Amino acid sequence: MATYEVVLLALALSIDAFAVSLVAAATGRLNGGRAGFRLAFHFGLFQFMMPVLGWTAGETLEPVIAAFDHWVAFGLLCVIAFRMIRSSIAGTPPERAGDPSRGLTMLGLALATSIDAMAVGFSMAILHINILWPSVLIGTITAGVCLLAILLGSRLEARFGRWAEAVGGVILLGIALRILFDHIA
């Protein structure tokens, strides 16, 4: 697989993490640079690990996991999206709403936005493509894209504040529905 193909693949896989990072920063939920780095790092780490896990599992586990992976991603994103929408409607201040770069929220977001990367790993195993270099690029590019999204989102915070959280919840619901429809259709 050519490097430019892996870069394009990485950019495509990073879109979900970009959207989540943008919304997290625009809603003011990321308290400082450390939280932003933590979010970008974990998204990049999961985008690196999931293709490796998918590749390792290869053809053996694909039929078992493929039957429900989209439901897991859909459920995780819906729960987080509904919490964001509820918080924006209730007017919960960002510091009370919780930092998405910590705990189960971080784990859920990183897992939900990287499940497609596991499918890429499955595909690469079937095509007998070495996974290490593509996974490193995918993880690194995702982390970089997330850092850019956080910088952009932090500039949007002053303008959109709490409404960005509602929009972010709707965006997450859209991503969840896209994942579901892509796998059902």
Describe the overall structure.
The chain is mainly alpha-helical. The chain has one domain (3-184). Helix content is 86%, strand content 0%. The protein has helices at residues 3-13, 15-26, 33-66, 69-90, 94-97, 103-126, 132-184. The protein is globular, with a radius of gyration of 16 Å.
Write the layout of secondary structure elements.
Blueprint: H1 3-13, H2 15-26, H3 33-66, H4 69-90, H5 94-97, H6 103-126, H7 132-184
Helix pairs in contact: 1-7, 2-7, 3-6, 3-7, 4-6, 4-7
| Element order: H for helix, E for strand | HHHHHHH
The main sheet comes to: none
Uncertain segments: none
Strand share of the residues? under 5%
Cα-to-Cα separation, first versus last residue: 27 Å
The total number of structural domains is 1
List the main descriptive attributes of the protein structure presented here.
185 residues, mainly alpha, globular, single chain
Short description:
Helix content is 86%, strand content 0%. It contains 7 helices and no strands.
